[in-house]
């Protein structure tokens, strides 16, 4: 089959690889009808997440049709079922899965011993996301093997286009969880850093959850316009001082809720000197992440406020102002999304037309144009916000 394969830093190719096969009774094979490129894939593209190996198949936002089934699915899935495949692989029966903490499932990461060493304790298996999370081949491919399929996939009905459903696999639940875990109150100002696909889903979720005002921060005009169309007030960080503007919008008190939809690769600019410092340390491998936004959020957040972090961090972040965070009494909530906790409810909201996540798509292309589309998405060329690939 054809698949997008990681060969090293900034080197992704569309190769012919071996077709996946059923390896366990709870497996299914999905024939992929649509897949997408995520901001998280860019961290792999830049080789900033450890434990990628040449030959690894990329991709963790995937949907399609079940074409083969294992023998241990307890009648829950059959050939022909239409499914969205969340990026988190979950056993459905361990202690963490039972609590709904799916992204830290204790059983699905077949290389848990690696993550045990790096993080202290292993986390869930993820598709196409390094050997720290199991080294599972991803879904930017013609076919995908889904382990623990009866707990992992979300069945979806016929008659709704892929484009409306695909993002149940990742960015829609991610934006939703980022907003839900911020515990939004009707009087809250919610500030969202980053208006990429995750930021866009977060902004719309915060509005659906009833925030008084949502403020969106980025520097790309087309992304700010999309945020504005949802009802957000926007700040272009290249034209305005983010801290001053946020204080101005909140009577000098700062936003109650701050959400980081950027993560480890904050934009580098001389106007934000700390980002140059982080970039230099990254080059010498003395720091893995560029946490400019974390610093800014801690500084501007209202005392007693909350910081929600869906943005991915990979390893070590320097110069985090813990003094300010501690003395201001801030709460931090973060994590890879517990996707399966939200999919059924969010599917219902799509079916009821509360939201149509396809608004974020700017580019659709065949799978073999994937390598080119990684660059277009990374460089924000052609006003690219979200790419869907068709195998
Ligand atoms: N927690 C999860 O489960 C989960 C799931 C999906 C994605 N993510 C993470 O979410 C993050 C965003 O993903 P995406 O697909 O939206 O990526 P993206 O790269 O398209 O978007 C990032 C946006 O942040 C903006 N930005 C950069 N520096 C900024 C700054 N200092 N201030 C304001 N804006 C700034 C960029 O211009 C860009 O528009 C990534 O780190 C990704 O790994 C996490
Ligand atoms: Zn993702
Ligand atoms: Zn589990």
How would you describe the overall organization of this protein?
The chain is 30% helix and 21% strand. The protein has 391 residues and is α/β, with parallel strands linked by helices. It has 2 domains: 2-169 and 338-390, Quinone Oxidoreductase, Chain A, domain 1 (Alpha-Beta Complex); 172-334, Rossmann fold. Strands 3, 5, 6, 9, 10, 17 and 18 form a 7-stranded mixed beta sheet that branches. The chain has a 6-stranded parallel beta sheet with strand order 13-12-11-14-15-16, with helices on both faces. A 3-stranded antiparallel beta sheet has the order 2-1-4, with helices on one face. Helix 6 (171-180) packs across helix 7 and helix 6 (171-180) crosses helix 13 (339-351). The longest helix has 13 residues, at 339-351.
**Alpha-beta classification:** alpha/beta
The whole-number mean of residue pLDDT values reads 97
Poorly predicted runs: none
CATH superfamily annotation of the largest domain: Medium-chain alcohol dehydrogenases, catalytic domain
Overall 3D form:
globular
| Total separate domains | 2
Give the tally of β-strands: 18
CATH class of the largest domain: Alpha Beta
Provide the CATH architecture of the largest domain.
Answer: Alpha-Beta Complex
Give a brief outline of the structure.
This protein has 391 residues and is of the alpha/beta class.
Show the helix and strand layout.
Layout: E1 2-8, E2 11-16, E3 28-37, H1 39-45, E4 56-57, E5 62-69, E6 82-85, E7 88-89, H2 95-99, H3 112-119, E8 125-126, E9 143-146, H4 149-152, E10 154-155, H5 162-165, H6 171-180, E11 189-193, H7 197-208, E12 213-218, H8 221-230, E13 233-236, H9 242-249, E14 257-260, H10 273-283, H11 292-300, E15 306-309, H12 322-327, E16 331-334, H13 339-351, E17 363-366, H14 370-378, E18 387-390
Parallel strand pairs: 11-12, 11-14, 12-13, 14-15, 15-16, 17-18
Antiparallel strand pairs: 1-2, 1-4, 3-5, 3-9, 3-18, 5-6, 6-10, 7-8
Helix pairs in contact: 6-7, 6-13, 7-8
The protein binds nicotinamide-adenine-dinucleotide and zinc ion (2 copies).
